[in-house]
Design brief:
Protein name (chains A, B): Iron-containing alcohol dehydrogenase
Radius of gyration of chain A: 21 Å
Largest sheet of chain A: 6 strands, parallel
Family (chains A, B): Belongs to the iron-containing alcohol dehydrogenase family.
Structural class of chain A: alpha/beta
InterPro entries (chains A, B): ADH_Fe/GldA, ADH_Fe_C, ADH_Fe_CS, BDH-like
CATH class of the largest domain in chain A: Mainly Alpha
Helix content of chain A: 40-55%
Distance between the termini of chain A: 38 Å
Pfam families (chains A, B): ADH_Fe_C (PF25137), Fe-ADH (PF00465)
GO molecular function, one term (chains A, B): alcohol dehydrogenase (NADP+) activity
Shape of chain A: globular
Number of helices of chain A: 15
Oligomer: homodimer
CATH topology of the largest domain in chain A: Dehydroquinate synthase-like, alpha domain
Chain lengths: 392, 392
């Protein structure tokens, strides 16, 4: 097992009716900013619940609101919130939304006290390790998928230059996150499907590499995959079923809260290629993962076949003596699961005029100087080309 | 799934050679107390590693030592450390040892600023939620088993009155814990066996109850059990095998760091009965669990048979249609595993003159006013009698 440090100070508050606890979780005598996205919180009742909980501890003039944080949150938008916080002397931010709103708030939190050009936080990958550098924040999750509610990373896009960049550091964990699984009841089926596949692929990126000594991490990763496979097809049909909803939401957090990555190699090339499909064709993030993942496993079969066979045996209960046969069947089982979850696993099913996709992506990676990706750093531009062309 | 709060701010630093990181983890400009037990740290080299790491940041006159914390740490001993801390104006405690030393340091941490009779911390079950109430502490683990390195609970015995009592609260998490799996190399085989069975039973107490909706928690619990079954027999023979050691030590932490208990019912009656066997006959804690656990499952069979069958299928790969038959076989598999791990699973194999054990334990529980235990509060004194007599 590789050496690791596990540090995750988020107070994670899970369950029905937990939004009411906001009144005890948000610090008193502080002016707070409620940050949100496109306004779905007004339709699903979460805004009203948040305001009702806060009204017990806060006077109305101690609460400022900032809406309009986009999916794939924009630096330009977030800097407007930074200006509001500086002007209004805000001491605490409450992110109410999904991964984009929470990611956006992480950037806002880091930018307020940053001296110099705040874009450097992203471009120079400044790490925030000291909580005195940032504005503390909590979250109320409304869309499970990204795990942002229980990790310290974020992705932000600079609109002007079309750069999608990351930030992070141990000071950027939420102080608390309230996760009420009943919030998924009002989500469109497409978003629920995306959430399941996004969480599933987060696990695969950290699990489907090569055999190693971290036995318990493998078991936990397999447990999350099994749970998502068991509940996925049903939860998108019956999101008001609390058993299904609660296991989905908790699995999505556990998929990317840092635990299963400790001590193990990880891949993340599916995400890196998928991001380009979103940039090119605006295909939903999760749907790009469903397209790329299985073809990446096929192209990198020699690297991954032992782990694919373990996955096939333990997660899909496949049997047999041939590592290769079980590994191949495991990929087919995965694709079939993605189809059950409403994914279209070819680029051509998601967009027209895709013929130059491989050229475009390979060029882009080469421009950035990326020589290789993946857990063995053997997913070269040529392999990327093969994966993308196989995905047409 | 039951509502839950998950909060665990321990900076858990795992792996080979990590003790060296002490120089960055212990706060500077603070006088520190190194607390330890019977002196095994002088034989296994951990003391020297700790002193070497600290010498890089601390002058010798900023380090005070306190040894002699017993297994089942005594209130009377710990109060001597409290006096040292008050006199020497210590600002940070470093616990170097196993669960007893770490539990003892949690009490010391809580008692220093406590006004009034410190025994009330235990007798009145005072919760410590505010870090300003306590002296911060870190740990260097030398004996895996209890999970104390990553939780906020402790057990302390008041010698004068023979009371074994608990304390806890979110302020009593270690600030950091350094867990180097190579420390187990020098442990006696008996302690390694005990550590595996202690960790295994910690999982069973939180898992082996009745079927519920927390699907992922079950999977994680089963993953820890499977890992301990896979490595247990070998790690006690080859503790210097890093693959075995690292999975054992990490599994022991995960068994009782709070994660698998979230959202689920738990039992803990095996521990409560087992504690009395230790008090009566000084049988090692883990060995009392190996005696009581299987007989508790037998006596409470009607309550636990569905979960026993799930455990049999998923952890032991048992097959068949009869819930009862699989459940029974699962108990036998568990006993056989305990025997493989060197446990003697009858009281009569561990002590002579045991005939009045059931009377004694049942009387003791009745004196305390305990009417029932277990996840369904149906382990009555009469059931306890049956379990203990079956264990003769």
């Amino acid at each position: 097992m590789q050496n690791f440090e596990l540090y995750n100070p988020v107070n994670y508050v899970f369950g029905k009716g937990q939004i009411e606890k906001l009144k005890n979780l948000v610090p008193e005598n502080t002016k707070i900013l409620i940050a949100y996205g496109g306004g779905s919180i007004f339709k699903n009742g979460v805004y009203d619940q948040v305001k009702a909980a806060l009204s017990k501890s806060f006077k109305a003039n101690h609460i400022v609101e900032f809406g309009g944080i986009e999916p794939n949150p924009r630096y330009e938008t977030l800097m407007k919130a930074v200006a509001v916080i500086r002007e209004e002397k805000i001491g605490f931010i409450l992110a109410v939304g999904g991964g984009s709103v929470i990611d956006g708030v992480k950037f806002i939190s880091a930018a307020v006290h940053y001296e110099g050009d705040a874009a450097d936080i992203l471009r120079k990958r400044i790490l925030f390790k000291d909580v005195s550098q940032v504005i503390p924040f909590g979250t109320v999750l409304t869309l499970p998928a990204t795990g942002s509610e229980m990790n310290s990373g974020a992705v932000v896009t600079i609109e002007a230059t079309q750069e999608k960049l990351t930030l992070g550091g141990s000071a950027l964990f939420p102080v608390f996150s309230i996760v009420d699984p009943t919030v998924i009841t009002s989500l469109p089926k497409r978003q629920l499907q995306n959430g399941v596949i996004d969480a599933f692929t987060h696990v695969m990126e950290q699990y489907l590499t090569y055999p190693h000594d971290a036995m318990l991490q493998d078991r936990i990763a397999e447990g999350i995959l099994q749970t998502l496979i068991e509940i996925g097809p049903d939860v998108v049909e019956n999101p008001s079923d609390y058993k299904l909803a609660s296991n989905f939401v908790w699995s999505a957090t556990m998929a990317l809260n840092g635990l299963i990555q400790k001590g193990v190699p990880s891949d993340w090339a599916t995400h890196m290629i998928g991001h380009e499909l979103t940039a090119l064709y605006e295909i939903d993030h999760a749907r790009t993962l469903a397209i790329i993942g299985p073809n990446l496993y096929r192209v990198m079969f020699d690297t991954k076949k032992e782990k694919l066979a373990q996955y096939g045996k333990r997660v899909w209960n496949l049997t047999g003596d041939s590592t290769e046969a079980i590994a191949e069947e495991a990929i087919e089982k995965t694709v079939a699961f993605f189809h059950t979850m409403g994914m279209k696993t070819k680029i051509s099913e998601n967009t027209d005029n895709y013929e130059n996709t491989a050229d475009f992506i390979v060029n882009r990676f080469e421009e950035r100087g990326w020589k290789a990706m993946g857990e063995k750093q053997n997913i070269t531009p040529e392999k990327v080309r093969e994966i993308v062309e196989m995905s047409y």
